[in-house]
Amino acid sequence: MTDLPQLPPLATELPPEALRVHALARRITTPCGDGDLVWHVWGEDKGEPLVLLHGGSGSWTHWIRNVEALAATGRRVVVPDLPGFGDSARPPGGQDADSVAPAIAAALPALVGDAPVDVVGFSFGGLCGGLMAAAHPERVKRLVIVGAPGLGLRDRRLPLMSWRDAPTEEGKLAAHRNNLGVLMLHPENVDDLALAVQAANVPRDRMHRRRLALTDILARTLPALTCRVDAIYGEEDALYRDVLPALREKIATTPYLGELVLMPGAAHWLQYEQPEAFHRELQRLL
User: Fold this and answer.
1) For residue 120, what is the domain's CATH number?
2) Whole-model pTM above 0.85?
3) What are the residue boundaries of the AB hydrolase-1 domain, all occurrences included (predicted)?
4) Over 90: is that where the pLDDT of 208 sits?
């Protein structure tokens, strides 16, 4: 990738468990900006496509505890490194979800054909999925948003430690561990795999001007969607646990709303923290 000259491929910095899951996937690239958009596909090509979009400062690894179980149901699980994250080049023309969504929509037919598909978007990926479903309804059959922002319920970020300012690798890891415990997981659930994935993903985030998550852009988009929309949020999500009634009101504006599922005890990265419970809920919705 021309915009990642200083970093090796993501897989070279992942731990053995992540490499095991990665090795089960097929790698496909499509054009994106001045480089490639990298896709990872689990399951047989004849399976019905299920597209998973990861969160901010992430990569396909945000779904590391889910892709095998979903592929085992017979689905073809299609997971990009979103433009500007992981091993994918930055999207042309922007630094936020409103440039990522059209880049994904343009590339998707090369992976799944022209028929609309089920899309599941986590956090920033849920925001991207909502924007894509609004602008390209022919691409999305059903949308499941998981802990998605852009609902106008927060106007400031959670306080995180700067890993870039840490003078040692131990200090950087300590910052990553802290930040996972503040935003993504219950602190006691920040394990070695989550820490290693975070440490590999965050330096590859080249979308530093993202601001749409702190606006109400998704709340304004939901009423325009013409596909079925379901939502899964953690009851203990640090972004929303204090505003759950308002969250229900925002999601309820969706014309073709299926369900809003609040997973008990789950934090923001709920598909990692409670993979079995998440899998059951997602399969039930789909």
Assistant:
1) 3.40.50.1820
2) yes
3) 49-157
4) no
